[in-house]
């Protein structure tokens, strides 16, 4: 039976980098006989232009029907002044929420070939390999009530709500423990339990889930300390599990430790490992259309798709190996270029990965 | 008329480092005829031991009556299992809130003498001098409702509320702009306006306040991007203003960029510049009582007190100069020690600053 892959090129550099990733996906499809059928639709700003909304109902229905989704990136300055429900990121938040993609995996991996690109000292980051597991469909991103209003004294005020239920925490904690089991067997749960009620429940439920994972070493850390420790000694971490907002902040901080955010993929999974896959970086409107964006994070997102949604480990590994070979050959897009390497554009980089595969 | 300074030695290394800072404060008092009268009380774990609560009513009354407060640090593992209202940090949160200390100034300054201590490359952090202005008495730290409860289906859930009013945002924005005016005239306001209602109001009010500061260059940044940019290129920042929770996270991240959190003081000010002054680092229970803690952050907190609460710029500068001289002499506590320097303990470091003053 064929598998349906829905592709969202998205905004900014999205279409360029997705085009290269699709080449790699199609080659893998053929070579490993994966039986994938690709179709395309729009999300974010591009969807607003086409449908008048950042996520059309028909698009959502197609996304529900698909077996996996590949996304470039969404957003751009031309949509910044739209009303909130029409803005590109609302399409992203809605699809995450409607598809129940609660498990966001964000690796922060330092490629040995790019070790010099980090702003941290080599000895601090050499060999860095962290996985941030971020809760993606709950917490303050989606909590209600949330409102802006005028008080009786004429003053404006606004508020958001940060809620977590036991089952939401339990399922993301399980993802964290499962991932830790496949890796270094260390899980650090990050919260702010000395201040927040939701964090106290978070910590309690993570402790309960831990009973089923005696082989995984669990620690807890406050989010402020985690933000510090990521700078001070990032290699102390293996897997980090945290809530939606803390995960947003810490995963971006962690990815920047590698100095090559153009290399980092991500997966957002539902309870059945159906997933949406996208690069960690954004839509980079300033370089869109110039053919210079780095397609490797999107190509590696394809590899994550094969691994997590389809269990095609051989094909997934082959793509990762091809990327590594291309780096060994000295090919670099501008964002990861350094003295002595050969600077190439988006398409040449994609072609090189295809050739290496 | 004499000025009343209330001193809280606090927990862990607090008493040791405060003892050295008090020596410096008393010398400055004499030398510059500041007319300070010092008195002592307890906050945090030490207060729990003495009064059965981390902030006694009599203590709060004395704090209200004082002209400024010097604090060591609070917290320790022996109080971790107390009920939340009895825990040391609740004393800290309560005194901040009750005294209206909404303006938290957290400098992240790289001392040239300690440049090697950072985990970042020298060219990334050399000359780093950021001031984080954190809102300290509002937001999710104090928002209500906040609750943990059992739902009808038997599941537990918990939630917190993140509220901000126009006046709360306005007053902290003013602090940010005022500080920027005294420094590099650049203010970056950090929020998550693409997701949070409270952040949208935050951004709108900061824009309004900006009209009164045409000489200050204002920018806005999302908190996830700010966490990244602090690692990538921290010197792009001059003053950063942000809410209570984001400020907690980003100020810790920023302070760690310097590699010497044992050097960083902080001030928490009310609307009349009455303030509580404390080091950015914590109570470090693991090294308490050993006489090896670094007292310089607390000594520099005294300097901030003289500057912000009493306008005694000459005395404040003299203390900063004395600290710099002691570093030039090669004296280092263990946390900032490097090859070729002389390792000294808490008391010897304090004495050296006194001698240099
Ligand atoms: C665009 C934005 C809403 C989104 C988020 O905050 O989740 C982005 O920062 C991310 O991390 O994917
Ligand atoms: C101890 C804790 C409640 C406190 C905070 O989160 O404000 C601390 O981390 C700080 O930054 O002063």
Automatic annotation (TrEMBL), chains A, B:
GO MF annotations in UniProt: 3-isopropylmalate dehydrogenase activity
Cofactor note: Binds 1 Mg(2+) or Mn(2+) ion per subunit.
Residues involved in NAD(+) binding: 76-89, 282-294
Binding-site residues, Mg(2+): 224, 248, 252
InterPro entries listed in its UniProt record: IsoCit/isopropylmalate_DH_CS, IsoPropMal-DH-like_dom, Isopropylmalate_DH
Enzyme class, spelled out: oxidoreductase
Site residues (Important for catalysis), renumbered to this chain: 141, 192
Domain annotation Isopropylmalate dehydrogenase-like: ranges: 4-353
Compartment(s) where it occurs, according to its Swiss-Prot or TrEMBL record: Cytoplasm
Catalyzed reactions per annotation: (2R,3S)-3-isopropylmalate + NAD(+) = 4-methyl-2-oxopentanoate + CO2 + NADH
A Pfam family: Iso_dh
Binding site for substrate: 96, 106, 134, 224
UniProt keyword annotations, A-Z: Amino-acid biosynthesis, Branched-chain amino acid biosynthesis, Cytoplasm, Leucine biosynthesis, Magnesium, Manganese, Metal-binding, NAD, Oxidoreductase
Pathway: Amino-acid biosynthesis; L-leucine biosynthesis; L-leucine from 3-methyl-2-oxobutanoate: step 3/4
Enzyme Commission code: 1.1.1.85
Biological role: Catalyzes the oxidation of 3-carboxy-2-hydroxy-4-methylpentanoate (3-isopropylmalate) to 3-carboxy-4-methyl-2-oxopentanoate. The product decarboxylates to 4-methyl-2 oxopentanoate.
Subunit composition and interactions: Homodimer.
Family under the similarity heading: Belongs to the isocitrate and isopropylmalate dehydrogenases family. LeuB type 1 subfamily.
NCBIfam families per the UniProt record, alphabetical: leuB (TIGR00169)
HAMAP family the UniProt entry points to: LeuB_type1 (MF_01033)
Annotated protein name in UniProt: 3-isopropylmalate dehydrogenase
Species of provenance: Geopseudomonas aromaticivorans
Gene encoding the protein: leuB
């Amino acid at each position: 039976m064929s598998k349906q892959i829905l592709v969202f090129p998205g905004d900014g550099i999205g279409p360029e980098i997705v085009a290269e990733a699709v080449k790699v996906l199609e080659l893998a499809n053929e070579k490993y006989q994966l039986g994938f059928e690709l179709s395309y639709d729009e999300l974010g700003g591009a969807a607003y232009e086409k449908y008048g909304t950042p996520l059309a109902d028909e698009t959502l229905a197609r996304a529900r029907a698909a077996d996996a989704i590949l996304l470039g990136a969404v957003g751009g300055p031309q949509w910044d002044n739209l009303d909130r429900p029409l803005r590109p990121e609302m399409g992203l938040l809605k699809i995450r929420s409607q598809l129940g993609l609660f498990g966001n995996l964000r690796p922060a991996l330092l490629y040995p070939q790019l070790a010099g690109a980090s702003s941290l000292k080599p000895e601090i980051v050499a060999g860095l390999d962290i996985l941030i597991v971020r809760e993606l469909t709950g917490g303050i991103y989606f909590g209600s009530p949330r409102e802006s209003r005028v008080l009786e004294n004429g003053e404006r005020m606004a508020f958001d709500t940060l809620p977590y239920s036991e089952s939401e925490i339990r399922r993301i904690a399980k993802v964290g423990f499962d991932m830790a089991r496949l890796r270094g067997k260390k899980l650090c749960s990050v919260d702010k339990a000395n201040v927040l009620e939701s964090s106290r429940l978070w910590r309690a439920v993570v402790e309960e889930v831990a009973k089923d994972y005696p082989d995984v070493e669990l620690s807890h850390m406050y989010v402020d300390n985690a933000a510090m420790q990521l700078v001070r000694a990032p290699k102390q971490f293996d897997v980090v599990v945290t809530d939606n907002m803390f995960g947003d902040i810490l995963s971006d901080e962690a990815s920047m430790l590698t100095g090559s955010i153009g290399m980092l993929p991500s997966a957002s999974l539902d309870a059945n490992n159906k997933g949406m896959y996208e690069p960690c970086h954004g839509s980079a409107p300033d370089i869109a259309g110039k053919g210079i964006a780095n397609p490797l994070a999107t190509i590696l997102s394809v590899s994550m798709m094969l691994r997590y949604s389809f269990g095609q480990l051989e094909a997934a590994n082959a793509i990762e190996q091809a990327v590594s070979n291309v780096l060994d050959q000295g090919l670099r897009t501008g964002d990861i270029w350094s003295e002595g390497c050969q600077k190439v554009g988006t398409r040449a980089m994609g072609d090189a990965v295809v050739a290496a595969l």
